[in-house]
Every structure is written in structure tokens, then in C-alpha cells.
């Protein structure tokens, strides 16, 4: 089978790539290969599916007609097993070999399961990353279930959100001394933890499971937690094996340039399997975040089709709800701090070298967060705007007239 464009994966980066290609090339053939058997869906919504706040149809990341509209062929439930960049071919587990002109690796990540004594004896154990994970967990729980979630990061807490009303008890254990440590600062973590605890979720922090034994998790602190269902959510690992075995440069994630090209000719990569350059911190790191995955994919698609694009404004960013409490965070938490805390919520802005480098917004203060995000991405010098006004209420009026025009109309700067 020969295709102009082949994409491995079917999530945000893959969809961005299709839409990037079609901005430049309306006729070239596109094939998506995905080991999941589903139409593209939004992974962050699997907790809302369990909670009953959404359904399978509304979880879809694009309409049912997306593949037809964009003239995309699909091979779902099929895994890519080997890549040969010099021959421009890829082997699949269904026995087929695909020949490509340009290839995108959007292979994502998988749950990391650390060794834990007795875990192999736990009958009902799950991870929480895919639609299949969510459906399997939903089948296993009852209103009497005692659920233990190992991991108080985003995945563990989103799992707790999805099932907290459907089970008898819910306990979260984490080695870290606070929840969401990669997303919030200490004060923010404490606020959100107290909110979740009021909903009936119990936490054991700075603690870990020493041993699972006959429905009891023995923690290192000596505490014991009864369970009949266990969810492991301690972290993820990028899926880099396909690239690595093909000789493509990998350092934790697949390495790419600003055009999302890898070290192999005509092979691009995007999403959770790649390393991004975080412009807020100046560090290279894996930014496993949906908006960044989409932007990377779109950049790769435009480049693959012969256009010009750059992925050079990546920052860590999270917009999420947690049991009805909304929060948006971005950038790094470094530099001078401006803080507001009241009944409406919690706001922290971080300023360094005359630029906004990060923010944390929790509660009803999340409106117009896009203006803060734009300031970080564009690295706007704050002396060019009315930052005192923006600190309290982000609004376009704080920008100079010319800037407002650019932001409102997408007008080209002179």
C-alpha cells in the first residue's frame, strides 16, 4: 500500500497533522494507522464519560464525517511494528507493509506501572488513559466498591473525579507531599485538595504502597487501606520504541526541530511522544498536553505538505475541571509573584525579566485566561501594556491600539 502521507496515531497530534496537510495539499492520499479501534476522541473527557457528564458521541474530537471530509483512509485496531526510514516503509501487525512519502509519528504515551509487591495478585487492577481503560473500570465498579487510586497527579485525580459518585469509598495514595505537584504550587494544591476532600475522597500523601495483600494495601507509613479495585496512575512513558529501533534520535522523547522533523528524512513526530522546547523556562522537556500536541501536529502537517510552519511557542498549560472546580495554569512558577485570593478564587501571576512567565487560576477567576497565555507565548514586554489593569482583569483595553487590532482581527503587523 503506497500513500503520500502516513500518520501513526489518531489523537490530537494526528488530527492537527491532517488539518495541517489539507491547508496546503487537498489531494494527496492520507492514511491513519491506530492501535485503538475508535473514531478520534478527546482523552481528557474519559473521566466525564464515567461521571455521566458526557457520552461517547460528544467525546469525539472531530465530527463523524471528519475522515471522509478530509479524504483520509484509516486502519484502526492495527499496530505499527517496524519502521524502515531508508526504504520509506513501515510494517504493521496485520502483515501489511505501508510505503509512505512523509510519515508522522504521533504514538503518544502509555501508563508506567512500577513494581509493587503483590500487585500481580490484585484481580481488579486498571490504568486510566484510554477509552478502553475507562470502559473496563466502569464495568468493574459497583456502589459498594472500595477503590484505591495510586497517584495524585492529573490522571489519578481525573479517575477519582469520574467514579467518586459511583463507589463506596475512594482513597488516593501518592509519594509526593501534595496533589497535582507538576501543575500547581503548594498553596494551589492545598486549596484543591481541601475541595476534593469535602467530596469524600481520602488522601495519603508522602506515602506509598509497600504491599498488596488479600484486599488490603499496606502503606509504608503503617496505614492500611482496604480495596477491591486498584487504579495505577503514577505516570506515563512516551512511546518511542518504533522511532528508536529505526535509529531515530530519542532522548526520553523523540527529538525534533522547530518544524517537527526528526533525524530521519521525511519522518516527523508530534505529541506526547516528543520533546518540546519550553519557552517559559528555556528547558527541553516532554509537554504531554493536548493544545501543544495539536499545534505540533499541525506544524508537521503543513511542513510535510511543502508549506512553512514553526512549532516554537510551546509552554506547559493545563485547563481542567476537578469535581466542578475549574483551574487554568500555564508557564513556570518563578520570579516576582502577584497574588489575589478571595471568595471567587485564587490567582497567581509570575513575572521575570519584565515578562509574564506563568500563572495559576483556580475558581471563578479563569475568565479571559487566554490573554495571560498570549502574553507568555509572545513573550510580551510588560512595559508595553497596562499590566496593572491586566493583573486585576485581563482585557484587550490594556493593550496599545495597534496590538488590540492585531489580537482582535489577526491583522498583520506593519
TrEMBL record:
Give the required cofactors.
FAD
NADH-rubredoxin oxidoreductase C-terminal domain residues are 337-379
InterPro entries named in the record: FAD-bd_OxRdtase (IPR050260), FAD/NAD-bd_sf (IPR036188), FAD/NAD-binding_dom (IPR023753), FAD/NAD-linked_Rdtase_dimer_sf (IPR016156), Rubredoxin_C (IPR041575)
- What GO MF annotations does this protein's record show? oxidoreductase activity
Name the UniProt key words of this record, in alphabetical order.
Answer: FAD, Flavoprotein
Tell me the domain of life: Bacteria
User: In what residue span(s) does the FAD/NAD(P)-binding domain sit?
Assistant: 4-297
Looking up SUPFAM superfamilies in the UniProt record yields:
FAD/NAD(P)-binding domain (SSF51905)
What protein name applies here? NAD(P)/FAD-dependent oxidoreductase
Question: For this UniProt entry, which segments traverse the membrane?
Answer: none
Amino acid at each position: 500500500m503506497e500513500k503520500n502521507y502516513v500518520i501513526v496515531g489518531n489523537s490530537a497530534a494526528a488530527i492537527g497533522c491532517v488539518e495541517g496537510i489539507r491547508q496546503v495539499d487537498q489531494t494527496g492520499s492520507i492514511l491513519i494507522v491506530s492501535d485503538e479501534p475508535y473514531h478520534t476522541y478527546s482523552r481528557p473527557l474519559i473521566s466525564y464519560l464515567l461521571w455521566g457528564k458526557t457520552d461517547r458521541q460528544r467525546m469525539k474530537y472531530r465530527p463523524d464525517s471528519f475522515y471522509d471530509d478530509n479524504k483520509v483512509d484509516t486502519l484502526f485496531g492495527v499496530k505499527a511494528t517496524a519502521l524502515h526510514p531508508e526504504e520509506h516503509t513501515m510494517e504493521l501487525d496485520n502483515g501489511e507493509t505501508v510505503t509512505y512519502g512523509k510519515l508522522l509519528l504521533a504514538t503518544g504515551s502509555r501508563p508506567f506501572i512500577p513494581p509493587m509487591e503483590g500487585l500481580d495478585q490484585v484481580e481488579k487492577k486498571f490504568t486510566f488513559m484510554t477509552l478502553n481503560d475507562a470502559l473496563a473500570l466502569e464495568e468493574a465498579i459497583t456502589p459498594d466498591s472500595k477503590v484505591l487510586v495510586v497517584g495524585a497527579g492529573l490522571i489519578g485525580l481525573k479517575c477519582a473525579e469520574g467514579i467518586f459518585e459511583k463507589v463506596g469509598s475512594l482513597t488516593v495514595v501518592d509519594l509526593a507531599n501534595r496533589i497535582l505537584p507538576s501543575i500547581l504550587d503548594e498553596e494551589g494544591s492545598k486549596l484543591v485538595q481541601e475541595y476534593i476532600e469535602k467530596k469524600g475522597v481520602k488522601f495519603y500523601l508522602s506515602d506509598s504502597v509497600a504491599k498488596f495483600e488479600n484486599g488490603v494495601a499496606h502503606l509504608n507509613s503503617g496505614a492500611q487501606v482496604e480495596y477491591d479495585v486498584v487504579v495505577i496512575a503514577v505516570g506515563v512513558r512516551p512511546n518511542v520504541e518504533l522511532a528508536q529501533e529505526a535509529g531515530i534520535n530519542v532522548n526520553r522523547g523523540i527529538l525534533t526541530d522547530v518544524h517537527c522533523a526528526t533525524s530521519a528524512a521525511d519522518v516527523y513526530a508530534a505529541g506526547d511522544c516528543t520533546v518540546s522546547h519550553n519557552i517559559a523556562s528555556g528547558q527541553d522537556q516532554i509537554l504531554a498536553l493536548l493544545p501543544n500536541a495539536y499545534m505540533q501536529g499541525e506544524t508537521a502537517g503543513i511542513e510535510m505538505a511543502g508549506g512553512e510552519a514553526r512549532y516554537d511557542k510551546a509552554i506547559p498549560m493545563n485547563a481542567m475541571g476537578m469535581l466542578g472546580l475549574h483551574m487554568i495554569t500555564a508557564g513556570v512558577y518563578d520570579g516576582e509573584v502577584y497574588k489575589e485570593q478571595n471568595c471567587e478564587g485564587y490567582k497567581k501571576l509570575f513575572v521575570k525579566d519584565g515578562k509574564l512567565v506563568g500563572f495559576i487560576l483556580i475558581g471563578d477567576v479563569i475568565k479571559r485566561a487566554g490573554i495571560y497565555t498570549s502574553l507568555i507565548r509572545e513573550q510580551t514586554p510588560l512595559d508595553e501594556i497596562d499590566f496593572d489593569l491586566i493583573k486585576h482583569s485581563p482585557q484587550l483595553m490594556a493593550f496599545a491600539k495597534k496590538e488590540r487590532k492585531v489580537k482582535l482581527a489577526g491583522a498583520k503587523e506593519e
